[in-house]
Structure formats: structure tokens, C-alpha cells
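This section describes the prediction task in plain terms. A model, or a person checking by hand, is given the sequence of a single protein chain and must write out its three-dimensional structure as a string of C-alpha cells. No templates, partner chains or ligands are provided. The sample shown here is typical of the held-out split.
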Amino acid sequence: MNNTQKVAIVTGASQGLGEGIARAFLARGYRVLGTSRRIAASNDPNYLTIAGDIGHPATGKALVEQALERFGRVDTLVNNAGIFIASPFTQYSAQQYQQMLATNLDGFFHTTQPAVEAMLAQGGGHVVQITTTLVDNANHNVPSVLASLTKGGLAAATRSLAIEYATRNIRVNAVSPGVIRTPMHPPHTHATLAGLHPMQRLGDVADITQAVMYLEDAGFVTGEILHVDGGQVAGS
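The expected answer:
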């Protein structure tokens, strides 16, 4: 086993942003562990796929253990897995609340903690969260307080962890997307969703993968929330 080849863990990797991010790391020569509740088996020796619920406390630890066992190290963790449910605040159910907490926050905690431990042991690493610009610029057309609550927590945690580990060679950053063209959004919704951006179009998966790759290479950048949102953060 070549322990010098870098390794990335990508959560929510079965489709959309997560799949694109995993493929981008593979394309630059990383070995990758991709996970999602349902994810296809991989025949690529450099790509290990594991099905699992990221909201379950044991899943994150198991992912890091599997990455170390199979590839010998963990250089980058991309916390991409997430649930987005738009709803008027009073119409959210207790089940929806628990689902979003489990995936968006519990998954982050239970995966990032063992990943950071592995990074400390090997002398460094990088953690990236995927958040949403609705945290910074709420939109009355998209009532989504639970997204702001959970993804806003990730944004705050990004800054806090970046400072905590700044002297120990672990960088922590986030990408904050607008609406991206993925299977999550049926084609008949695209025109309406495009109108939510000052640029009047949807983003593409490549826009997010390029942002993640920039942060991966930017050794003097930590604690950054990089907005890739067609201008949403600037206003309407």
C-alpha cells in the first residue's frame, strides 16, 4: 500500500455534488472513500464506496477506520451529506427537525471528530463543509429556518475549528452554494430556481468541485466560507 498517496473522504457521494467532488479528487490522483445511504459498488481500487446513514453515531467513526485500513491515511474530509427541506416554520414536523439535525449536524460531528484525530496523528489535513448561502442571506421565497439552523451551525463550526487547529496544520473551510443543477431539482423547476440568483441562472456541479479544489490547494486559506452562489450573498 502506498501511504504517500493522498486520501479524501466524501459524504453524500452517490450523486450530485458529492459524486462530482469524489470524481474530482480521483481525477487529481487521490484515493477516495465515498459514502451515502445508497451508493453503487466501485470497481476502482482507488475508490472505496460504503453505504451507511451518516446521521448514525457509529457511521462516521467506521468511515475513518475503513479509510485508514484500506488506504492508510486521511488527508481531506468533505462533509457534503445534507438534507434540505423548505417549509414555513410552523409547518415543520418534529420528524423533519430530527432528520435535519441527524444528517446535517450529527453526521458532521461523528465524522469530523475521528477524521481530525487521524489528521493530527499524521501531521495535518483539511476539512471542508458544504453549507448554503441562505445562512447569510435569507429569502422570503424559500422559508427554510432548519437549513439556516443546521448549515449555519456548520459555518460557525468551520471558523471555530479553523482557529483551534490553525497551528497544527489542519485547515477547515466551507463552500456555500446557491442552487446547483443536480438530480435534486427536476428540470421543470430550473427556471424558477434560476431567478433566485442575481446572475439569473443555476450553478453547475463543476462550479462547486472547482471551489473545493481551490480550497484544497490554498494552503494559506483557513476559516473561509467560499460563496459560489451566483451573487446571492451580495443581495438581490
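For orientation: The longest helix spans residues 94-122.
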